[in-house]
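3.2 Worked example (two chains)
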Amino acid sequence: MKVKLNNRAIINISGKDALTFLQSQFSNDLHKSDSLHVQINAYCQHQGKVISILWIFKKNNNLYISLPKELKETVIKKLEMYRMMADVRIEDFSSKVNQYGLIDEKNYRAVKINKNLSLLTTRDDLVCGGELNEWDLACIHNHIPEIYVKTSEKFTPQILNLDIEELGVSFTKGCYPGQEVVARMHYLGKPKRRLFRFHSSFKVSIGDSLNVSESQSVKSSGEVVRVAKKDGDFYFLGIFEVSYINNQIYLNNDQTKSVNLIHE
């Protein structure tokens, strides 16, 4: 299935210092990026909270960043602020290049996200058989989180499970904004919250809170970060307190609206 990802932007990064520059900004090891695979990265602020999750790949000796359109200006502004005198060009290619998500579909021009999903970028307009909701559902099924304006600068990479098998974080690559905080949590502690999959028969939106009555947390026990609808029900990825994951969980502290953990 092919889905046009018209909610995503794409940024072209070029220049002789491009790789070195991005290596100093993002959470993963850009030296391991290539033209066949999407490399997931977190762009963090100084406290280690994720501003945006980025999909990065190489093409024609340039680096490309795919990200939610609503965070494009924030990311470009921050990159420009740090660019200084480096030989780096940062260009918004969103109006020039179309992005398509492929679900269980092979295309030699696509870059793989995992064994089920891939990203195709092209200047052509292609015929699609799926809608954005189906792409979100596939990403939820594959545990691929997203960050939007509502959830930007709220969670560390570990809370989003980006540290598991170093999916989106390298702990050997060197410095980047927030690196000390992220590394400290990795080596000295465990995150109290993690990313889980849930199901609900009630309407769910990004930013909704997830609660259990037993939690002593001053904040809500968790928060919804990605949602899709299927057959009238809602499937979503949510941040939640690990110690309470097997308790009864409610949506927005409403005990008439329970949600269910999807057991792996």
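3.2.1 Second chain
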Amino acid sequence: MRADNRQVELADFRGTICAAALSRAFSSNVLAELVKSGFSKTLATVLGDAGMTSHVNMTDDLGSCFDLFYTQMKDSYRNEYVYKNTIANKILLGRHSLNTAAMHTEFRVSESKADVLVVNGTSHIYEIKTELDGLDRLEKQLEDYRHFAEYVSIVTSDNHIEKLLKIIDPSIGVLLLTNRQTLKVIRPAVSDRSILSPSIMFDSLRKSEYSEIIKSEMGSIPEVPNTLMYRECKEIFERINIEKCHNYMVSILKKRDADDFNKNFIRRVPVSLKALAASSKFTKSQKKTLLSVMDKSIGDCLH
């Protein structure tokens, strides 16, 4: 994909309104349109609303244009996607690798949804609180997460740091997304496996996943009607040593959607789309199509 130096042309065009409009380009709906037909009416509307149409070279490939839009957005409108994508690039692909770690977004944990869960040799939930967010429901979210993951951190902006350090448990880590788009550790997360809950871990797994765990532990799954399978497997899981429960959970979640093709897909998409790629539910064929579309000129993708 061809890069460009058009950031210079955009220097006088930056602003929150433009960036907020561009943020709508980084959605599963836009990617779904591109996969289905090779073009996206939504993306065309976004560029029009952002006033960007005349600032884009229509012969540039779509992938490099997404990176251009992302540069504009992350400097002026750091929404939740910017935080997620920074975690994907700096932690999943920077600190770890796709051969040893996996990332899940909007991951259900009890009554909450974790913004980002990274599993490698252990489990780490990253809850995002942007400069656009309040801190409502945070206490309940952190309570749920601490019963599921060995490490829990909040990734946030300058304006929340002081308050967070006063109100959250000392075991919760705090990371700052700096103005240079790096993640600065303000306070590291502390491990406490003693409060992990096998029940909460179990309820975050799919049937095929907890069945695999129970078979590994017991040699077979219970011979009971399907209506009783969940209850029987959960009772077995809750009797397993907590350290072993956690290790089982980490191992199974590392394998979820972690085949070689999917890893290569994440590696090949533009830097700006890593978080969307990591959470993509597309089929193998759809992912091939999306990679192909990224090499097309943006002009061919807006009709």
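3.3 Remarks
The first helix runs from residue 16 to 22.
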